[in-house]
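quick one before i forget lol
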Amino acid sequence: MKPAAKNKPAPASALSVAWPPFAQKLAAVLEKLEEDQFLILSVKRSNRFVQFAAQGSFGMRVETTSNSYLTKQEQLNDRQIAALIDAGWQDPTRNPTDSTPEDDPDGSPNYFAEFSAPVSFDAVANLTVRTLAEILRVPHPGSLQYEAFDTEDGAIELPELGLKLAKRPEADNQGDLSQRLLATIKETTGLGELEYDDDGDIPIRYGSAITFVRLIDDPLHVRIYSPILKDVEENPGIFARLNDVNANETLMRFFYRNGTVYGVADIFAVPFVGTHVAQVFAHFCQIADGMDNLLQAEFGGQTAFVESMPSSMRH
């Protein structure tokens, strides 16, 4: 009789031998970045990225994508989040709307790390490779692309990285993005008569809710939002309820301001991926249409429309 086989731990996933030499290339490139120059390494066909901001005598700021910018399919799980913190990243401080340079100068809506001067560029590169290869499970540096630029939006080419250059859209291409966004919403709703209103929004009624879609600058992204319930009296109960809802919702968030409960979702517009926008938009409309009536039953207030209407959303 053969002896019983011992339980062996599962072998760790192997990493490509291309990562260590890429880390060396990255460290050399980062050392050459001048103050107010930026580099973004992004995963092809994905919203996952690591980005670098050279800050001269103040060192270097590095960020990697939080769940605020990831689709449901790409959301970081608890194990990945714990690994990011263990690697040295700091938690996002606020959501994308509130974490602006003016309101949150030392924080970020992404996971972030600060490297003081003199910067150890090898340490920055090693953190980047650990994040991409071990935590985000990017199989090979060839799965990455890059863009580099300065504060004047001047493009910087870094061929020594050995990566494909992801060109940034020119400012005059925003009109094209506006039309692509409008076409995506028309296709998703089946409402061919939709147009932008005077405020730059695409208004859509869905059930008892009204939803607006627009392009937002700096950074360029698609914003979907809805004043789902008006004339709501401020009280601790509404804040507690919205906190509970936000804890279980990954693609949108709810907040209370000046008597109105809003729903908001933000999606990267560059690169513009129509299927991502359509998926988030459809999910948003369905949740907003149900949430307005639920919150009204608990806290009063007025929905955008008293009577519901049949959905025109294509499935």
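fyi Helices lie at 19-32, 78-87, 121-135, 174-189, 236-247, 274-299.
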